[in-house]
């Protein structure tokens, strides 16, 4: 797999620890990879690392801090959207996604903001049981005041690292 780059919105503080704990617990229980809690703003960014880094700085300078509201547990049929918390499609979040798409010249595709809790391929019944058992205490809000530029050298989360943290406009 070629190296890919992604823009993440990450929780901090108590919200980070609560979500990281849930991810760690689920990954151990279901023998899945653990990963950092995040909402992907835009994935698979085109260009060189230097170009992507410069555009990330431009994006950060154009966005004010905003809140992300995690609303409800859900599941999907894709490996990286197995079990997750939906994020409310607020105007600020959707605007950030739209600006990022334009800045990186990526086609607008339907955006379903979410924070994954478990990666993998599991039966619908198991995913339904997992989401039903998740605590509503995980439906948290957090303020985003930075973007994380992630370099992924493979699809394994152990190979994902933040190479730049970009502050949002103050």
**In what range is the share of β-strand residues?**
25-35%
- Measure the end-to-end span: 37 Å
How many helices? The count is 4
Mean pLDDT equals: 96
Give descriptors for this structure.
170 residues, four-stranded antiparallel beta sheet, 4 helices, single chain, alpha+beta
Report on this model:
This protein has helices at 13-29, 49-62, 91-103, 124-133; strands at 4-9, 39-42, 66-78, 81-87, 114-118, 141-144, 146-152, 160-167. With 170 residues, it is α+β, with helices and mostly antiparallel strands. The strands form 2 sheets. A 4-stranded antiparallel β-sheet has the order 2-1-7-8. Helix 2 packs antiparallel against helix 3. The radius of gyration is 16 Å and the shape is globular. The model has no long low-confidence stretch (mean pLDDT 96).
Compact overview of the structure:
This protein is α+β, with helices and mostly antiparallel strands and 170 residues long.
């Amino acid at each position: 797999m070629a190296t890919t780059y992604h823009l993440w919105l990450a929780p901090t503080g108590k919200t980070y620890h609560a979500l990281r704990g849930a991810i760690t617990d689920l990954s151990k229980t279901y023998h899945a990879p653990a990963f950092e809690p995040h909402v992907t703003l835009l994935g698979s960014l085109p260009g060189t690392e230097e170009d992507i880094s410069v555009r990330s700085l431009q994006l950060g300078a154009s966005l004010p801090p905003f809140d992300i509201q995690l609303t409800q547990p859900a599941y999907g049929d894709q490996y990286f959207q197995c079990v997750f918390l939906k994020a409310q499609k607020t105007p600020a979040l959707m605007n950030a996604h739209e600006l990022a798409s334009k800045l990186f010249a990526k086609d607008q595709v339907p955006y379903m903001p979410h924070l994954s809790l478990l990666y993998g391929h599991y039966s619908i019944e198991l995913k339904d049981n997992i989401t039903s058992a998740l605590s509503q205490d995980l439906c948290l809000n957090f303020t985003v005041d930075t973007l994380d530029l992630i370099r992924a050298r493979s699809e394994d989360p152990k190979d994902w690292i933040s190479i730049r943290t970009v502050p949002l406009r103050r």
